[in-house]
Amino acid sequence: MSHHQNTAEHREARRLDALARLQILDTPSEQAFDDLTELAARWLDTPIALVSMVDDQRQWFKSRVGLAVNQTPRELAFCAHAIQAHELFEVPDAALDDRFSDNPLVTSDPHIRFYAGMPIASPEGELVGTLCVIDRVPRQLTESQQDTLRRLARIAEFQLRLRLSLLDSEERALALEHQEALNQRLLDSITAGVVACNDAGELTLFNNTAQQWHGTDVMKVAPSEWGRYYDLYESDGTTPLATEAIPLLRAWRGEAVDNIEISIAAVGQPLRQVLCSGGQLYPEHAGTGAAIVVMHDITEIRRASNLKSEFLATVSHELRTPLTAISGAIGLLRNGATGSLPPASERLLRIAQDNSQRLSELVNDLLDMEKLEAGQLDLQLKPQLLRPIVEQALEINQPYAERYQVSWRLEPAATDPMVLVDERRLQQVLSNYLSNAAKFSHAGGLIQVQVLIEGDEVEVQVVDQGIGIAEEQQQLLFNKFIQLDNSNARQRGGTGLGLAICKELIERMDGQVGVRSREGAGAFFWFRLPLSQAVL
């Protein structure tokens, strides 16, 4: 046996001894660890968070959020890699990582794509486990999120130190007091407001930030009296919030608290807008139960958003009138209103008209996006036969096909499904899909349009044989102001808002959007809508 092997085995033996001294494996759940995983999942916005202990055969989860199993074999464990380092271990995309791409935890349930784990050390300094977060889509933590994970891992390490202390000492009450003090100090250092209650509905956590925002200490106030001690309002800042609508009380009752916006008015402070998310710590229990809510101050974000919306609306409306006049004047000149024009003048007017059209599209897209974000875009939903809408969209967008020298074909279908939609807005979505397919196709290309019924949904597909889309860019396409990052795509123009508007409109009609593509091999854009049972 080599010296290196002997040293590695000795280190592993020390680590396993430290883990055994903690007597933590296969123990019941503890709220202190459950609070950590709940906070990690919420603050880092991941569906799965774990406190994992790694022995010689397995990784066992002391606490878990979003995962049904309580252990996995060590040879499959991402955490087994994380404990080899003394710093945060992050895997942005497991499917592209040679160490994990064929791991069953990646290729099948729970379909891990992103992993970030911070090693947890025993009191002796041995790395016995991790606090980790997992997502099913590729991503990376920001520096702030990495710092949050490190801080939470330090709390887990304190819990292990406390556990060892409790095993060796009869001064349990003092140790618990130290635990609560450390937890409170950490939570008080966080700029988010954090509040929690136990199964009886009694407040167990109300950090300094929350107290400052509320203007009082309400730790001993019963749930039914929470509304008497400070002023809370609906997100409009003027309508008082009913006591039963307080986010923590809702979470305690088992209701979902997901990005609920409220306003807090405290003595001596301006009205503060906060975004609340949380839920029960043990949702599998029926009825009321211990809950936690995290609050983020979004006052400045809301103020900036309102200013941006007002600015865009003003600029957009002010641009529309002169743009209409410019486009009309150019059109008259090109149509011979002042006589025939020399070729050079005709070329310049064509360029001006094209750019006026692009500016008009941008103004219209900005106004639509602002209305959608503000919830001011009303849809007129009616039961409609889908195929005539698609046929009309093909006819309306025929000039695009002629301009880019492509053709499209609507595939035959046995039935014409009925959907509950706003016809004008669905035409807007179809026009965006078709015009994009035309712009990014090669001359002479064929664009296929298909309407397929799948279960209780109908899927509309627009398939081109054009330049295609790189895989890493596909997930960004439906975000605002996103255009393909290559010179060929940029030359073909666009506002960067069209697909984002399509996504918002289809989702407002209870549907979904998506894309499949390979660079250089065309693109397959689709949207799905639920079938309507209404009768015309």
Automatic annotation (TrEMBL):
Its membrane topology: Multi-pass membrane protein
GO terms, molecular function: ATP binding; histidine phosphotransfer kinase activity; phosphorelay sensor kinase activity
Domain Histidine kinase: 314-533
One Pfam match: HisKA
Location(s), subcellular: Cell membrane; Membrane raft
Alphabetical UniProt keywords: ATP-binding, Cell membrane, Kinase, Membrane, Nucleotide-binding, Phosphoprotein, Transferase, Two-component regulatory system
Top-level taxon in the UniProt lineage: Bacteria
Catalyzed reaction equations: ATP + protein L-histidine = ADP + protein N-phospho-L-histidine
Major location category of this protein: membrane
EC number(s) recorded for this UniProt protein: 2.7.13.3
Keyword Kinase tagged: yes
SUPFAM superfamilies with a match to the protein in the record: ATPase domain of HSP90 chaperone/DNA topoisomerase II/histidine kinase, GAF domain-like, Homodimeric domain of signal transducing histidine kinase, PYP-like sensor domain (PAS domain)
GO cellular component: membrane raft; plasma membrane
Coiled-coil ranges from the UniProt annotation: none
Protein name as catalogued: histidine kinase
Native species: Halopseudomonas pachastrellae
Highest classification ranks of the organism: Bacteria, Pseudomonadati, Pseudomonadota, Gammaproteobacteria, Pseudomonadales
